[in-house]
Amino acid sequence: MSVRELHLPKIRPGESVFIVGPKGSGKTVLAKVLLLSRRNAIVLDTKLIERWGKVGVRVAEKNLLQLRGGRFHWPASHAFILDKDVQDAIFRGLLANGHRTLYVDEAYDLQLSGGLKLVATQGRAIKLGLWISTQRPSHIPLFLISEAQHFFIFYLRLKRDRERVEEATGVRIPWERLQRWRHSFLYVSERGGLLGPIKLDEASVKAVL
Ligand SMILES: Nc1ncnc2c1ncn2[C@@H]1O[C@H](COP(=O)(O)OP(=O)(O)OP(=O)(O)O)[C@@H](O)[C@H]1O
Ligand SMILES: [Mg+2]
Questions:
Q1: To test the ligand 1 pocket, which listed residue (183, 201, 208, 209) has its Cβ within 8 A of the most ligand atoms?
Q2: Strand partners, 41
Q3: Residue nearest to atom 10 of ligand 1 (CA)
Q4: Phi and psi at residue 46, in whole multiples of 5°?
Q5: Which residues line ligand 1 (CB under 6 A)?
Q6: Are 175 and 199 in contact (CB under 8 A)?
Q7: What spacing in Å lies between the alpha carbon of 197 and ligand 2's midpoint?
Q8: Mutate to test the pocket of ligand 1, among 28, 33, 50, 156 (most ligand atoms within 8 A of CB)
Q9: Nearest atom (ligand 1) to Cα of 25
Q10: At what angle do helices 84-97 and 114-122 cross, to 10 degrees?
Q11: Range ranked top by mean pLDDT from 9-13, 110-114, 186-190
Q12: Which domains does the chain carry?
C-alpha cells in the first residue's frame, strides 16, 4: 500500500485532539494545518521557538492571555508559562468562556492542575477543545489522552510510548507501516476507526511553514 494524502477529518468544536510522534516527525506542522480551520484558537507553546504568524495566531503584546475573538499565542517567558499556577489560571480562564480551541504544543511540560483536569473532562460540553501534542505519551496521564476524540500518530520507537497510545485508543497500531514514509501518520478516531498511513499534501505544508 502506498501512502495517502490526507482528507482531514472533521474536528468539531469542543472535541479533543492528541498528536504523538518523536522530535521532528511533523506534529507541529500537522497541528498548524489543523488549526488553520479553527476560529478562536489559542496556543500554549511551552518551547517558544515556533512562529505562529502564518496560522493566523496573533501575538498578544503583554504577558497576558487575551480572551477576545481571534487566535492568540502567549509569548510569555518560559519560566512564566511553565509555572503551575499560571497554567492553572489559563485553564480556568478558558473554562469561564468556552468556545475555544486550546492547543498545547508539547505537553511534556504541562503541569497537572485542577484547571487542566476540568478542561479535559468538562471542556467538550462548553465547546472548549483541548488539543495536545507530545513526544512522550508515556509521560502524559492516561485520563488526558483517553479523553481525545481524534488521535494522530506518528512512528514511535519506544515500547512504553507505543503501549500508552494503544492503551488510550484501544487500537493495535501497525507501527511497521508507519516507519516507511517520513512525516506520515495514522489517524484513529474515538470509535477506533483507523486511517493511514497518511501524509499532508505539499500545499498544506507550504501554507504553514
Ligand atoms: N508533512 C510534512 N512534509 C514535509 N516536511 C515536513 C512535514 N512535516 C514536517 N516537515 C518538516 O519537518 C520539520 C519538523 O516538523 P515539526 O516541527 O512539525 O516536528 P515536531 O514533531 O513538531 O518536532 P518537535 O518534537 O521537535 O517539536 C518541519 O520544520 C518541516 O521542515
Ligand atoms: Mg513541534
A1: 183
A2: 101
A3: 26
A4: -75, -15
A5: 21, 23-29, 135, 183, 199-200, 205
A6: no
A7: 20
A8: 28
A9: 21
A10: 30
A11: 186-190
A12: 17-208 (3.40.50.300)
Residues 55-67: pLDDT tens digits? 655 444 344 444 3
Quote the CA–CA distance of 187 and 196 in Å, as a whole number. Answer: 6
Task: Give the C-alpha distances (Å, rounded to integers) separating 104 from 99, 101, 110, 193.
Answer: 16, 10, 8, 24
Burial of 169 (0-12, 13-18, 19+ CB in 10 A): buried
CA 164 – CA 145 distance, rounded (Å)? 9
For the chain, give the mean pLDDT: 84
Residue 110: pLDDT over 90: no
pLDDT of residue 20: 98
**In this predicted model, what pLDDT tens digit does every residue of 30-40 receive, in sequence order?**
998 998 878 77
Q: Which residues surround ligand 2, an ion (CB under 5 A)?
A: 27-28
Q: Give the pLDDT confidence score for residue 74 in this predicted structure.
A: 59
